[in-house]
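Structure tokens please, single chain.
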Amino acid sequence: MNKISLQKNRRQTFRRPRLLIIGCGDVGMRMLPLLTPHFRVFAVTSQPARCAELRALGAQPVVADLDQPASLRRLRGLAHTVLHLAPPAAQGVQDVRTRHLCAILPERAQVVYVSTTGVYGDCGGARFDETRPVAPSTPRARRRVDAEQVLRQWALHANGKLAILRVPGIYAAERLPLARLQAATPALSADEDVHTNHIHADDLARIVVAALFRARPQRIYHAVDDSAMKMGEYFDAVADACALPRPPRLPRAELRQVVTPALLSFMSESRQLDNRRLRRELGVRLRYPTVQAFLQQVGRRA
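Here you go.
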């Protein structure tokens, strides 16, 4: 590229609207190629060592830490479009990080927040849409509900535009439970198994971008695929596709004795989320509509 072309590209980049990504991890990195043609992207990281990686994908890194409010001052007014993908801290009953972020958000900003389907708690396997009330049963899920409420209050008082994406278990080729299968960690017996929901990381990246352009103000969306699986069926399908033994099955009473409380909590909530709003309003066509569709590709490559 000659000097004149380089200068032209720089001018075009600086003219694009600014967008700020909070929590640019795996999904955020998958979003960058979709965003950089339209926005001048600023990506917040608390790790200076990641700056080169972010620059390589066209983002301008900003070193800041949601746990250190003073470090966020440089973000004030930086962008009116914000993608909030950062999880709450591991402790506490509130999401202090989201509170710190809201303190520096400008009025009339647009925010897309990536939350979790865990806010619903155990639903006994019921299938439902976004109108169902939340009923979090773990501290982690209660912090997510707190984040959603704080963002809603910010949007109300600052005349902001907010979209909340409730996200289930995220999978990808690099995010399959292979270590668990190799360790032969047991799953629940079929008669006690729980319904789970899934989304591929690439599809989630596309959903976040679609919400940025098409979401209705103050709207919640289920960012889930079309899979109808129980947890043990998911482990079995991954095991079959990757030529690994299927996990042993145990009744819940026995499983409680051999798995961690954190793992057991994931096996204690059963729900099936409707994604029709995602399709109707955001116009999303999933690249991997089911886990099985993705695993067929894994099996062919194996």
